[in-house]
Amino acid sequence: MLTKKDIVDLVLKDKNKSPVQEIVSAYAPSNIALCKYWGKRDEVLNLPVTSSLSVSLANKGTTTVVKCHDAQHDEIILNSNPVDLDSQFGKRLVSYLDLFRQNNETFLIETSSNIPVAAGFASSASGYAALAEALNILYDWQLDSSSLSILARLGSGSACRSLWHGFVEWHKGEREDGMDCNATPIEKTWLNLCVGLLVLSPEEKPMSSREAMKLSKASSCYYDAWPKKSADDMKLLHKAIDNSDFELLGQTAESNALAMHATMITASPSVCYWQPETVAAMHEVWALRKEGVPVYFTEDAGPNLKLLFEAKDADQVMSRFPAMEVVMPFEGV
Ligand code: PMV
């Protein structure tokens, strides 16, 4: 069984071993999957059962400052608050840093996200992507973004898609060591595409996506259907992106999210991230669509929805969802 450290050694084999800078900073956008990552073929290395495809959220994401310091322990500050190193968040981050320290160096990590943490807005994705980018600068590894995506994946699977703006594909790969399991950007600009962030319940999610996908894979009678559904949706999304076909993009993303949630709802025990507000918002989206407005939703491991629509329909969508924050993934990036 390969460990994360084995993979880090493979990626960094002839790279610089000591930090060359004292303090560095990196930003990574959050990303929203239109074809989801749901289920692992390797639990340790975060190798997925299926490929996935996302769109990044431009200026919504995480900025991480990494400083080498001479303290006994790492120090972590999240959104201006010190993090307990024994908390789940702290332990996970420290064990990620352990993969890279060469001479017992310790770090001060100051990370700030402008998206809700652990509410299905992919804050861990942008967090681990920003950290991998910052370490790349700190140690001067000079890795290209696709190699860096392998390191980001070891922190959080979906983090490997947060190394770029725009559409990104994460290739599932076949190899046991996952060296072919990286992400690459899709060359496409879709200027009038909008993503609406609908915070329906800002509470932390009851179960991590890691646990929920494991349970779905192990116990849902529908999980066997997931790889085929995912492969079909991937083809449709590529077609939609190539042809700038918004309705195909929206329909496919919504159907893919519902299929993913079907594997959770039918897991044992059932995992349902939907709150009454989630279901009410889904019905609003469907009602608006019946009225002729092309708007679709996607949902991750949390109760909140992300709406997909085009700029020409923004006023109508916003009048139905006044609290929604709108991101234009391709504007100004
Ligand atoms: O990368 P993780 O372990 O946070 O898993 C992300 C899972 C989903 O957000 C539900 C789907 C996805 O592809 O982002």
Structure description:
It is built from nine helices and 13 strands. The chain has helices spanning 4-11, 88-98, 123-138, 145-155, 209-219, 226-242, 246-265, 276-290, 314-320; strands at 23-35, 40-42, 47-48, 52-69, 75-78, 81-82, 106-113, 167-170, 183-185, 193-198, 296-299, 305-310, 325-327. It is an alpha+beta fold and 333 residues long. The protein is 35% helix and 23% strand. The mean pLDDT is 95. The strands form three sheets. Strands 1, 4, 5, 6, 7, 8 and 9 form a seven-stranded mixed beta sheet that branches. A four-stranded antiparallel beta sheet has the order 11-12-10-13. Strands 2-3 form a two-stranded antiparallel sheet. The chain starts with a helix and ends in a 6-residue tail after the last strand.
In short:
By secondary structure, this protein is α+β, with helices and mostly antiparallel strands. 35% of the residues lie in helices and 23% in strands. It starts with a helix and ends in a 6-residue tail after the last strand.
> What is the end-to-end distance?
40 Å
| Heterogens | (3R)-3-hydroxy-3-methyl-5-(phosphonooxy)pentanoic acid
> Structural class, from helix and strand content?
alpha+beta
Mean pLDDT: 95
Low-confidence stretches: none
What would you call the quaternary organization? Answer: single chain
Q: How many helical elements?
A: 9
Main β sheet profile: 7 strands, mixed
DSSP summary, beta strand count: 13
The whole-angstrom Rg is 19 Å
